[in-house]
Model the fold of this input.
Amino acid sequence: MTASESPAPLIEQLLYEVKRVVVGQDRFLERVMVALLAQGHLLVEGVPGLAKTLTVRTLAATLRGSFKRIQFTPDLVPADLVGTRIFNQKTGEFGTTLGPVFAHLLLADEINRAPAKVQSALLEVMQERQVTIAGETHPVPQPFVVMATQNPIETEGTYPLPEAQVDRFMMKVLVDYPSDEEEFVIVQRVIGPPVTVQAVTSTRELVELQQQCRAVYVDPSLIQYAVRLVGATRRPAQHGLAGLEKYLQYGASPRASIALVEAARALALMRGRRYALAEDLGALAADCLRHRLVPSYEALAEGLDADALIARVMAQVKPPEQPLQHGPQA
Done:
């Protein structure tokens, strides 16, 4: 693919191939693609059986990439993820065995079931994109995207992710049940003949798409809009939201502003544009902010979750009227 070619047809073909297997979940699949293009990681919250594993595995097949799934349990240790040194009796030397984190697409299933030490090991790999074993550094393959899932209906035997660690995820996506029509099609596909997924592109072309995503133009007014949205969660009174202060214990970090702009770039590229618009930021604001806010006890008592607080912020902080759209086309 050349730089002048639009990547939108390739992305559309990729999504079409995945949707031959996965029914519904359009919004979730779009967020997974945004994370892939923006080189971010995804935290997914949803009950079991909503095709989270199937989506990532199918996407890996269409990309000719490697896919690994780790079922997090309380007895896991960091070596089960990143790898360890093993003594070879035949050679009399120690050799390095790499763990399952060395994959293009990694699914960390029920990440909140593992203790903090294991969670930290995974989050370190997400940030550094490399693993150090016995003083030797091993980079993970590129592209590298982690999708971690949480089960919201069961809290017994879980270790909640600390807010500082959750901040490493670009987005947190909520996955809901399918509609009756979608579930009907799901049952039909499961009881019917299996669908063979065709490889549409390669990981090398995905890296090229990621480079094109980094070249998507973002007007300074849109960056200011992202900064104002995030700033309103920290100091609501300065943005005309004095009544919101009692509901927010902690606001979003600067990582939220970066994630919002990077994700908007990816969404613009998926929509066939070389420039981002305010609507791209608005569409992704809840996903980029909801896991970074810490509601106060007053908010919880009144039934206000992070999404409700984000909606109030977005209603008050207005997007720029006419951001520059056509400069990058020249």
